[in-house]
Amino acid sequence: MPTKLDEILANTALQVNTRKATADYTTLEQKAAAHTPRGFVAALRTAAASGPAIISEIKKASPSKGLIRADFHPATLARMFEAAGAAALSVLTDESFFQGSLEHLEAASAAVRIPCLRKDFMVDRFQMLEARASGADAILLIVAAHTDETLSDLRDEARRMGLDILCEVHDREELNRAEQLGFNLIGVNSRDLRTFTVHPELVTELAQWKTTNAMMVAESGIGTAADIAKYRAAGYEAFLVGEALMRQPDPAAALAMLLNSEYSVGI
């Protein structure tokens, strides 16, 4: 039986093919050339040298939770998160399942100096061109969505485009594959993309199997300063936080509290 991830990937492939058929490649290439990537991994490493490096996620909705934030203004949120201490941003661009868009990414990226990740289901080289043209400095590659051959192909294209890569894994086998393919930024997502359930214990379990010097990012289910302290103790340096911030009346204040170990943010 097809999983939710299978459904999303099939839909993404159809949407990408449609955009490719109607794309103005000259304009996209000009916009991509005009954007100089700001160094996503470097920004995380700099922030992690003095504390937790937070990737604040700009996300309007999700397949499992529906609408998360109705008052949604990407540029405003981006500026707020930067001012509150985010090391980088993650911006959802999937339209069908997350109510995101490339316009959200472009608006957020233009509003800040910190680097931005295009958070989407990347299945085609064309999406790398779209990403840089829209102001992205990094893209997401999900190991579960690819064979080693397609992962390598997309990795090489992202690097050719000057984009950093957050490689996402969900189990030990995927972690091994990511390491063998030379990814230097590996995210452990505790949310099972086949069922969208969260298994927080997975984050600490996988940390013990790391064998390279790749920087590790904890993803999903992070809502308190205590969560961050626990994962830092396990070896994580960066933390992607979305829903816990986006549900707050003042997301920037919530981020500031999350960065302060004396406080916590409720999910």
UniProtKB/TrEMBL annotation:
Protein's pathway: Amino-acid biosynthesis; L-tryptophan biosynthesis; L-tryptophan from chorismate: step 4/5
E.C. numbers: 4.1.1.48
Keywords (A to Z) from UniProt: Amino-acid biosynthesis, Aromatic amino acid biosynthesis, Decarboxylase, Lyase, Tryptophan biosynthesis
Native species: Edaphobacter paludis
A Gene Ontology molecular function term of the record: phosphoribosylanthranilate isomerase activity
Classification via HAMAP family: IGPS_B (MF_00134_B)
Catalytic activity as recorded in UniProt: 1-(2-carboxyphenylamino)-1-deoxy-D-ribulose 5-phosphate + H(+) = (1S,2R)-1-C-(indol-3-yl)glycerol 3-phosphate + CO2 + H2O
A biological process from GO: L-tryptophan biosynthetic process
Domain Indole-3-glycerol phosphate synthase residue range list: 5-256
Family: Belongs to the TrpC family.
Keyword Lyase among UniProt keywords: yes
PANTHER family: INDOLE-3-GLYCEROL-PHOSPHATE SYNTHASE, TRYPTOPHAN BIOSYNTHESIS PROTEIN
NCBIfam families: PRK00278.2-4
Pfam families: IGPS
InterPro entries: Aldolase_TIM, Indole-3-glycerol_P_synth, Indole-3-glycerol_P_synth_dom, Indole-3-GlycerolPSynthase_CS, RibuloseP-bd_barrel
Name of the molecule in the record: Indole-3-glycerol phosphate synthase
